[in-house]
Design goal:
This protein is about 30% helix and about 20% strand. It is of the alpha/beta class. Strands 15-16-22-23-21-20-19-18-17 form a nine-stranded mixed barrel. Strand 13, helix 13 and strand 14 form a beta-alpha-beta unit. Helix 6 packs across helix 12, helix 9 crosses helix 10 and helix 14 packs antiparallel against helix 16. It is globular and about 85 Å long.
Amino acid sequence: MGDDPERWQTFPGERLVVVIARTVTSTVRVLDVLRPVLRDDPRLHLVFAFDPSSAFNDGVHALLHSVGARVLPWHQFPRVSPDLIITATENADLTTGHHTCPVLVLPHGVGFHKVVPDSRSDRDRLAGVVPDALLRSGRARLAISHPDQAAQLAAAHPATSGRTLLVGDPCYDALLDGRALRDRYRRALGLTDRRRLVMISSTWRDHSVLGRDPALPARLLAELPLDDYAVALVTHPNITSAHGDYTLRSHLDSAHDAGLLTIPPTAGWQATLLAADLLIGDHGSVTFYGAALGTPLLLGTFGDDEAVTGTPMAELGRIAPRLRPEAPLRPQIERVLDLGGTDGDDTGERVRKVGESAFAAPGRALGLLRTAVYGLLGLPEPAGAPPPRRAPAPPVPQGRPEPEKEPATACYVHTSLSEGAGGPDGLRISVERTPAAVADLSPDDRRDAPGGPFRHLSCADDEWDRQWPESASVLVRRTAADTAVGADRWIDGTFARYPGALLASAIVAGRGCRVGLCDGRTVEVSATGRLDDATVLAAAVYACLRAGHPLEGFVTLALGGRTEDVALRLTRRTSGPRPAL
């Protein structure tokens, strides 16, 4: 970025992309999408410019450094010549200086539904819309999640006409992908199956949940039995930017002493929302995401004066049930959770439909965004697969150490069979595994043949990267089941969630492995040694199935330079057949 930069660079680069970081909220939104959108492309130089002019700039610089971003001081920004500016803040002054490149403005919430104070005047303005001067320049492109938003913007700001790009909502897509990992998120929060999680989401200012009732978390914990409920709080980053984390925690000291789970505002709220049994929210975007997911909802408050008339958010405020703070809280919670009886009440379904109405092209947002970015850069998109879809990372409540990161479980398993080469029955099965994430870089050209070798994708059912379990032939349970009955229940549930799978494999503590077939059969696999890997033991069943060998008897498994004898026994299930193979 300085004088004679070519002398110091490792990567040649063809285009310079500058990301404007102004608030924590807007910076997090850009960070969430940049890596997958710009993945594996050394043609791009990427640098962040920190605009310190916001009243909520506290924490931005630390956030950028925490992810290893290259930060350009704001006073140097006019001296560089970017090919594209990306930002999720509409308030940065991008009309000064000599820049003529396009500006892509990403939303940092759901749509354009909120009126907020204008930092440049004493008036209010529509959140998400850049200044008129930038619109008139023709450089700005506003990313939208639904076509209706283009009409809304054109009516409010005619200069936006023709300046919107439909890209969907990457955050919503991640939430959809994360629904299958609910149990894993709950474990990260320390929840058992019995306890229900009540999540509180508070936006900022006096119309927010905490602005209206700072004691609500403590009151909920006081009324809800701790063996039956847990309470988690997610706050808008502007709260801590304005007041400081120390002050916020001071206001919530009693709630923390009672077990309140405080989720950092920069990460973890998505996973917490997916783990929640009930959401208490307001007119913030987190509440709207919860509505779209079908999470049971109570509005702790609602900024009717801040919600823009005619938007889905305003409609949500009209139909969603409201928490009555003056009344006992537990009966209201139980009613929404359908513990008190709500026969014939379709409010929840109406709320979900309103939420879904704000999102177009679900599952395609990252791909559409990448197309938009490369179109503005004047570069062809990278060859190969579209940007990977990843479920949200597990929540890490503040005050707890980050859990040890687990390696990816998705792998391609190669099996080959040899007759008369081992085992009491003369069958030897050799097993090799390669990480699925680098399969495109592998020179391996082995393909299935009638007698083998065979290749299949194996993956844990709760893998974070959702593309793998949705495509896997074999799904495995990450932790051992306590009993064979528990393993069989998991197998049935796995086939219900992943009807395209062929096998589902689970270790039973001290009793080998149970491998279910999608045609209803189950094979009990027992190793004579210490082999207890559900992926490997399932590979033996898969190889026998593909080769037409009986699923009974003994085989020798060869893996990583060692061999082990394995017994296969076909059992009958009592819970009924699964769909035919």
